[in-house]
């Protein structure tokens, strides 16, 4: 597959990826190389990756415990300390090998260590391939609040090797699929329609579906790298989805949701709001709702859950001057950003989701 040129960095695929990586390392005279992994990718992905690496540089592995709960500033401090103790300097290269938690945190660590060192993302989950690895967003959570601390800083390159997906559980694959479905809903109706009958989908062509998803995100981000305008389209389903994800993360009596599970619910809720504002028609909403509910189990909301979820909306990064801003779809394949939504409409959306 042909490489995709993002804003000042390339995204390489499969067999071309490692050739590009080794050429880059050999040309740039790095002092040493650090690979950041979590406990899962250390076990399942690092053994696949290391044989492709052709370098005489000293290689150090930094591992932290897997899970969103560890995507915080405390983990960053531990990684910064290890980098310091092991002699990392301004000419160090950091490779982030893992899912969205690793690429988000590793990119933030690299962007801030000694005011910034080169880093490369090698996403190993479907979600990180089609979402977290593209666009230069790096950061960590603040308590239960998603991605509150971070920077926009692009990697030197991104390498996507779909063989890593063989190690990914089915629920994690579904989580990544949510972002692919979102890309169709906000940008490409034809792409969305390819997923309407998953049983008929030829997964031999899944590499091409991933490629198109990366392409869509890159096309949007290239127009608006710092999220002042059209990049906000990528937040469809995330305003409510992130609030739901954060609420379930902070409550011990709730089962923690995968990102895509929360975003799928967010897309149903925000599609209902789009219909209520006459941006999509009832048939379009019905298609979206039935399609997503056929893939993702319903999230069970108690009456006492809704108000604290709404309270979390105020922390959404798209908010301006204290107003909650939604990105809503205007027909399948189109988006309308900076939409204010009253609480009553959100409550109606939750009521409809449960019906």
From TrEMBL:
InterPro entries reported for this sequence: Dehydroquinate_synthase (IPR050071), DHQ_synth_AroB (IPR016037), DHQ_synth_fam (IPR030963), DHQS/DOIS_N (IPR030960), DHQS_C (IPR056179)
Q: Which residues form the 3-dehydroquinate synthase C-terminal domain?
A: 176-319
GO cellular component terms given for this protein:
cytoplasm
Annotated ranges, domain 3-dehydroquinate synthase N-terminal: 62-174
GO MF terms on file? 3-dehydroquinate synthase activity; metal ion binding; nucleotide binding
Q: Which NCBIfam families match?
A: aroB
What is the documented function of this protein? Catalyzes the conversion of 3-deoxy-D-arabino-heptulosonate 7-phosphate (DAHP) to dehydroquinate (DHQ).
Annotated GO biological processes are: aromatic amino acid family biosynthetic process; chorismate biosynthetic process
- What name is this protein filed under? 3-dehydroquinate synthase
Domain of life here? Bacteria
The leader peptide range reads none
Which cofactor does this sequence's record say it needs? Answer: NAD(+); Co(2+); Zn(2+)
Which Pfam family, just one, is annotated for this protein? DHQ_synthase
Q: What EC number is given for this enzyme? A: 4.2.3.4
Q: Which organism is it from?
A: Flavobacterium weaverense
Keyword presence, Zinc: yes
Task: Recite the UniProt keywords alphabetically.
Answer: Cobalt, Lyase, Metal-binding, NAD, Nucleotide-binding, Zinc
**Coiled-coil blocks:** none
